[in-house]
Amino acid sequence: CTVRWEPPAYDGGQPVLGYILERKKKKSYRWMRLNFDLLRELSHEARCMIEGVVYEMRVYAVNAVGMSRPS
């Protein structure tokens, strides 16, 4: 599954350093982080997913100010 997103409309006055991506199963409450190093691109190939299971994804932008709210 390839996940794509847009950069944030507002960056708090500091450039975006990268992104953090998380996923969870649709009926679950537990989010799992998919990357430990910041992602530099606006897409990511999510792996180790179970065919037929519905997932939700969310992404955070990170800069010198901190981490954004998830999208």
Can you put this structure into words, describing what you see?
There is one protein chain. The protein is mainly beta and 71 residues long. The protein has strands at residues 2-4, 18-25, 32-33, 43-45, 55-63, 66-67. Strands 3-2-5-6 form a four-stranded antiparallel sheet, with no helix packed on it. Strands 1-4 form a two-stranded antiparallel sheet. The protein is elongated, with a radius of gyration of 13 Å. It starts with a strand and ends with a strand. The model has no long low-confidence stretch (mean pLDDT 95).
Secondary structure layout plus pairing:
Blueprint: E1 2-4, E2 18-25, E3 32-33, E4 43-45, E5 55-63, E6 66-67
Summarize it.
This protein has 71 residues and is mainly β. The chain has no helices and 6 strands. The mean pLDDT is 95.
Amount of beta strand: 35-45%
**What is the number of helical segments per DSSP (H or I, 4+ residues)?**
0
Query: What is the CATH architecture descriptor?
Result: Sandwich
Low-pLDDT sequence parts = none
What is the strand arrangement across the widest sheet? 3-2-5-6
**Helicity level, as a percent range?**
under 10%
Quick one: overall form?
elongated
In this structure, how is the largest beta sheet organized?
Answer: 4 strands, antiparallel
Distance between the termini: 18 Å
> Would you tell me which CATH topology applies?
Immunoglobulin-like
The tally of beta strands, per DSSP, is 6
Whole-number count of domains: 1
State the secondary-structure class. mainly beta
CATH class: Mainly Beta
InterPro entries: FN3_dom, FN3_sf, Ig-like_fold, Striated_Muscle_Regulatory
GO molecular function, one term: myosin heavy chain binding
Organism: Kogia breviceps
Keywords: Cell adhesion, Muscle protein, Repeat, Thick filament
